[in-house]
Amino acid sequence: MNDRRPQPKGIDRIAALLEPAFPVRMLGFGLVYAWSTCIWDLPILESVGFGGPPQNDASWMLSAALTPLACIAGSLAGRTRELAEFRSMYVLAPALTSLGTLCVVACPHAPEPLRTLLVACAGIGTGIGPVALILLWTCLFARTETGIVETVVPASFAATLVCALVVPSLPAAVSVATVAALPLASGALLLLSKHALDTGAVACETPDENGHLRVRHANIARMFFVIFAVYGIGCMLPAASSATVPAPVEANATIVGMTFAIALAAAIVLFSRRINLEALFRWITMPFALAIICTPFDSQQAIGLSRVLANVVFTGIEIIMVLYFVRLAQKTGRTSTFFVGIGECAAYTGVFAGYMAQPPIAQLLAASALDAKTLCLLLVGAFIAVTLLVPRHDATLDADTASETECAGVEGIVAKSAVGKRSAPHPESASAQGAVAVAEALVEHRVRIARSHGLSKRETEIFLLLAQGRSRPYIRDALVLSKNTVATHIRHIYEKLGIHSQQELIDLAEGAFERE
């Protein structure tokens, strides 16, 4: 494609050198989750006795309670306006998160009168700040071309993985400074990404020509409960285990689980036809059920496997949830703040409820009122029941898309291109008839080009859509193909035509027609 954008200057030029394949600056999204992974496991907190259950720490309790409230408040406030429209949030969100981190570390060392104030600041900062930062990132993703987002979001969790590997091995003071700097770095990269999107350095999402779709309120409620239940059940699992898991085993389980989840999420994005909750649950049902089954065994190998699988599920569902709700916002015309706020509220409410359920479950097990294996059997049954609530009809699979799929053959595309939009009136004037004749001739010309270069039927379908200026996400939706399949067909089309971009394809399809 011919790049008509002005040459980058200053910091844009440096950023451009650092991101030859995709916007590296957008990987800052993963730093938010890196922060949440590391903050409560800082070595300095363990040295002052924080190594026990997190429910015993007042700052954690306040943070865990405020986080879902912040999510739902953001969702309600974002019904008509994106959070990104409040410019002050770009500074307040990372600053509040970083300040809360420092207060968490300072709490155990402060005298009693000051400790209460620090606990309040820690809870507010770590409960509200990261939620705002996540919502700001998803506002950015809602404006970004879907193909870029589907690459960036899974890749950004590699930053989370790196931090989980590095931070625990750092000296206490360095680890604190690193974790406190993560939200600031994420906020800075967010501003750089926003600037790149505003200036055209990163492609924007093309508005859907078919109009906005409607989503049922019942489906939103069901999605909320499903996500809540999965996180809640997962956070109950440690209470059902009587085995003590050494810290290195726990850390390695987190690393292995996150690595596998990133690969799994990438596979879903590349090879699934649709990124929706139903597809997600087909992927996570087996590992999550196996994680529950392994929990009651005393073997450290079984417990380690359970932790790995749980991390796979939690990391994978977070990645796909963000992608799904951003896509849903684009399709429905609602704000991403609204949808992502609902999803994150469900997740964090489930986390809070699961941790709160651990003490009573432990008491029941200790009193022999409940057997661990029976508990896990009940949890497996509950999870299976929850999967039945996953909405089968998705707002991204509306009737317009189905119609596109039905006319995906060459003849259907030719007919559709000839008559224009479905809602267009029948031509009555001579000029309108002439315009239709030109459109028919153009499509026939494009079909001849495709056949002369030996394109297959599917490649011809994609060639015609590319010649109309359609994006890859549009083609995937219209023809019901995976991202990887569309990319492979486009690569073959370019090779057969001897071109390197969609703009060259359009020039080829239209230039020869004009000469005729």
UniProtKB/TrEMBL annotation:
The keyword Transcription regulation applies. It holds the Pfam family GerE. Residues 448-513 form the HTH luxR-type domain. The keyword Oxidoreductase does not apply. GO terms for biological process: regulation of DNA-templated transcription. Keywords: DNA-binding, Membrane, Transcription, Transcription regulation, Transmembrane, Transmembrane helix. One of its GO terms (molecular function) is DNA binding. It comes from the Bacteria. The chain crosses the membrane at residues 21-40, 60-78, 90-111, 117-140, 147-167, 173-192, 223-241, 253-272, 279-298, 304-326, 338-358, 364-390. This is Helix-turn-helix transcriptional regulator. It comes from Rubneribacter badeniensis. The lineage of its organism: Bacteria, Bacillati, Actinomycetota, Coriobacteriia, Eggerthellales.
